[in-house]
């Protein structure tokens, strides 16, 4: 008889740990995440290759609308409102932002806010969840495939999250987040395409679950990777975050990252308005209709002062509302 020895699960775990060490990883690989993320991309490429076309124009337009809505949930909601408290929002806007954030298919709001607050406090150190010093792959997506190291966990526990965990609305939202994500990211966008204009189901899946979702997913991740590796630094030349127009364009205004790390409280996340900063444009719109208020901004004096002291000499721009958008070099 054939005598086949099957490794005990603990032996498999030990083998995986040895494999991780041989690759020089500081963190253990989160194998469930690694496999699921990798498979999602493989299936997405395969599925999109066969079912992207023919497609109805309404499906393409709707995917674009969902891209902007998902992005606004991240930029205007999780980032600028709940992480940095750059402005205040009334209940209708909070509900809209939570729905939009759900459609982005990211980690829970509580996880997102904690990770980002740690990132700002310990940017590009061992305590940063997506430390850019560990390379583009890690800072872009690798950190989602690995367990947090001890320093990240330690510092994360020290972050004040009382405004998030004690908020009744957010407490309810975080408790049922996976259901909201499933509904607003996958089920509702896909089925609307089928119900409203009779799109083929496999094409609707392509444009919402793969093309739209993965484009939003990677656009937001470029803020952690590309915006910490490429660009100029008019506000602080001694940190890794940089001004990156490509990132600003695909992430709806999040790529002016050197400015953002200098003035994280500014609701624009940029010193000026640009056509693709939908996050700032929408927040300003909601201020006009009374849903957003107490918008915080850095003043031209503050901007010029820190640029003169710490910047690399690159031109800076004052906010358009204060200086009509004219570019001014630091004197």
TrEMBL record:
GO molecular function terms noted in the UniProt entry: iron ion binding; stearoyl-CoA 9-desaturase activity
Transmembrane region(s): 31-49, 61-82, 179-197
Record domain Fatty acid desaturase: where: 57-264
Main location: membrane
Cofactor: Fe(2+)
Example GO biological process: unsaturated fatty acid biosynthetic process
GO CC term, one of those recorded: endoplasmic reticulum membrane
Location of this chain's protein in the cell: Membrane
UniProt keyword list: Fatty acid biosynthesis, Fatty acid metabolism, Iron, Lipid biosynthesis, Lipid metabolism, Membrane, Oxidoreductase, Transmembrane, Transmembrane helix
Recorded topology in the membrane: Multi-pass membrane protein
Domain of life of the native organism: Eukaryota
Domain commentary: The histidine box domains are involved in binding the catalytic metal ions.
Family according to the record: Belongs to the fatty acid desaturase type 1 family.
The protein's name in its UniProt record: Desaturase 7
Organism of this sequence: Streltzoviella insularis
Lineage: Eukaryota, Metazoa, Ecdysozoa, Arthropoda, Hexapoda
């Amino acid at each position: 008889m054939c005598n086949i020895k099957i490794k005990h699960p603990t032996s498999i775990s030990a083998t995986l740990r040895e494999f991780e060490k041989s690759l020089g990883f500081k963190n253990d690989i989160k194998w469930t995440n690694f496999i699921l993320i990798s498979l999602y991309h493989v299936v997405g490429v395969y599925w999109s290759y066969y079912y992207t076309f023919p497609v109805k124009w309404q499906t393409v337009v709707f995917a674009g609308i969902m891209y902007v809505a998902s992005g606004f949930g991240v930029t205007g909601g999780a980032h600028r409102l709940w992480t940095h408290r750059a402005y205040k929002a009334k209940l209708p806007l909070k509900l809209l932002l939570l729905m939009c954030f759900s459609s982005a298919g990211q980690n829970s709001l509580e996880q997102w806010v904690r990770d980002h607050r740690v990132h700002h406090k310990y940017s590009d150190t061992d305590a940063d969840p997506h430390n850019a010093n560990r390379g583009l792959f890690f800072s872009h997506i690798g950190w989602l495939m690995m367990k947090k190291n001890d320093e990240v966990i330690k510092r994360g526990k020290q972050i004040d999250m009382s405004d998030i965990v004690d908020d009744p609305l957010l407490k309810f939202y975080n408790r049922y987040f996976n259901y909201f994500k499933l509904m607003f990211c996958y089920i509702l966008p896909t089925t609307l395409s089928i119900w409203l204009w009779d799109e083929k189901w496999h094409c609707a899946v392509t444009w919402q679950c793969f093309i739209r979702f993965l484009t939003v997913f990677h656009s937001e991740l470029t803020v952690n990777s590309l915006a910490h590796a490429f660009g100029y630094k008019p506000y602080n030349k001694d940190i890794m975050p940089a001004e990156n127009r490509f990132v600003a364009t695909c992430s709806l205004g999040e790529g002016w990252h050197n400015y953002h790390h200098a003035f994280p409280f500014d609701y624009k996340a940029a010193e000026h308005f640009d056509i693709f900063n939908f996050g700032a444009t929408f927040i300003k719109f909601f201020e006009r209709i009374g849903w957003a208020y107490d918008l915080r901004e850095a003043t031209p004096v503050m901007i010029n002062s820190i640029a003169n002291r710490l910047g690399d000499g690159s031109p800076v721009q004052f906010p358009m509302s204060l200086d009509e958008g004219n570019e001014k070099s630091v004197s």
